[in-house]
Amino acid sequence: MILAGLSREIEENLNKGSWIRKLFDEGARLKKEFGDDQVFDFSLGNPIVEPPEAFKRALIEEAEKGHHGYIQNQGLPAAREKVAQFLASRFEAEFSAERVVMTVGAGGALNVALKSIVNPGEEVIILAPYFAEYKLYIENYGGKAVSCPLTSRFEIDIEAVRQSINPKTKGLILNTPHNPTGTVLSQKNIDDLGALLKEIEEKSGQTIYVLFDEPYSQLIYDEELANPFQSYHRVILASSFSKDLGIAGERLGYIGLDSKMPDAGFEFEMPKGGFFVFPKSPIEDEVAFCVHAAQKYKLLIVPSSGFGMKGHFRLSFSVPTEQIKNSRDIFISLYRDFA
Question: 162-189 pLDDT, tens per residue?
């Protein structure tokens, strides 16, 4: 049933639907009509084994403690610390709890990551064949999904990716082990992708993120998991414990960034007195930057050339707290104009 009055976009997406979900619903109908043993359903990647007994016991113990109130938006600090340790061990990289966010499954992780980096009209490359929901996730935030074919052996076609990149490209979703083909990408293949993205950044200054979607990474046969954190410095990991622990219904996912990921924000020395901050300008011409801030956002900041120095700007926080709060999104948009 489709309700009247829905937006055209939502109605179109519901009509298209995901074939996986449609087949799941059809399978449920057929099993009810003919019996479970008469329906041969290979459509949904749903773990059929029960979670480990240790997980079940821990879940029951926590539930009995009565921890059902609101927590930090990023997730429980203890959980984030455990995930950081887990990722550090797996990828031999530096992770901290501050760079981990707990999410509603890997799908939730991808949505949070995309919302954080994509502006309306920007593009994200998806490697075909791809998980059908990727396109919808990108479109949720006004982005455009750009399909780029894998090779005939379902590896990354580096030249095809090069041809797909343009000034609007903001990211690329990388999935290994790959859904739907089961391919495990090699370290060299991902290294070559990282080299391409570094080359583009060095030549044009363009920032392109790799969104590493890897919920199947602990289900590998006779292969080694490639490490994208060794290949590139702008990797956002999106994953979950749904598949390897058999807890898809718990929607236990997370985002992880390693220490090499550049901070998304203005660089400045923390003031130790007074009420001024003196950040670096994201472009060499700090006067042009401050003029842009004033003309586009009515944001008044002072170029450092007025103080005998290039490349910075000054802002005073001796203003009402409400003004500081209300300017947050403006500063984010201003930074993204030059990111």
Answer: 999 999 999 999 998 888 888 899 999 9
Taking the whole predicted model, whether its pTM rises above 0.85 is answered as no
Which DSSP helix (H) or strand (E) runs through 26? helix 19-34
In degrees and rounded to multiples of 5, residue 239 shows phi and psi of -155, -175
DSSP string, 62-95: HHHHT--S---TT--HHHHHHHHHHHHHHHTS--
What CATH number does domain 276-338 carry, 3.40.50.11210, 3.30.1330.50, 3.40.50.10680, 3.90.1150.10?
Answer: 3.90.1150.10
Burial track 78-113 (b if 16+ CB lie within 10 A, e otherwise): ebbeebbeebbebbebebbbebbbbbebbbbbbbbb
**Cβ neighbours of residue 145 under 8 Å, at least 6 residues apart?**
123, 124, 126, 134, 135, 138, 139
What are the structure tokens assigned to 169, written together? 């490209």
| Average pLDDT score over residue span 275-295 | 93
Q: Are strands 276-277 and 302-303 parallel, antiparallel or unpaired?
A: unpaired
